[in-house]
Specification:
Elements lengths: L1 H13 L2 E8 L3 E5 L7 E7 L5 E7 L5 E6 L4 E6 L3 E7 L5 E9 L5 E4 L1
Length: 113
């Protein structure tokens, strides 16, 4: 019985993920997790032809852990609770990013320019 319960718990945690291809308009940002939430991890791949900037923005204000993600480059970001991940497209072309989010997936999602 303990084995069945352990397996069920493992499957529950393995299924707590979100996979998406997200389009970001020129000079726009996609904001993931601008709400109260637990920690989460994002694996992303820049599938556009221009660089993207990613950074973390705590819900209470501020900005940290900024990095550039070049075309076809992958990045993994561990995001603290109550902190948003911002993916910014400063180019004049539309950008596309593949995302896999694990951990707390009760995250707000939106755009900002």
């Amino acid at each position: 019985m303990k084995t069945i319960i352990s397996l069920a718990i493992a499957l529950l945690f393995a299924s707590c993920s979100l996979t998406s291809n997200t389009i970001i308009k020129p000079n726009d940002s996609f904001i993931l997790g601008n709400n109260q939430h637990g920690s989460f991890k994002v694996r992303l791949k820049n599938v556009s032809k221009n660089d993207l900037e990613i950074y973390q923005a705590p819900v209470g204000g501020g900005k940290h852990s900024s990095q550039k993600v070049k075309p076809n480059e992958r990045a993994t970001v561990k995001v603290d609770r109550n902190t948003a991940l911002v993916i910014s497209n400063t180019a004049k072309d539309t950008a596309s990013v593949d995302l896999k989010v694990t951990g707390d997936i009760g995250l707000s999602m939106g755009y900002s320019n």
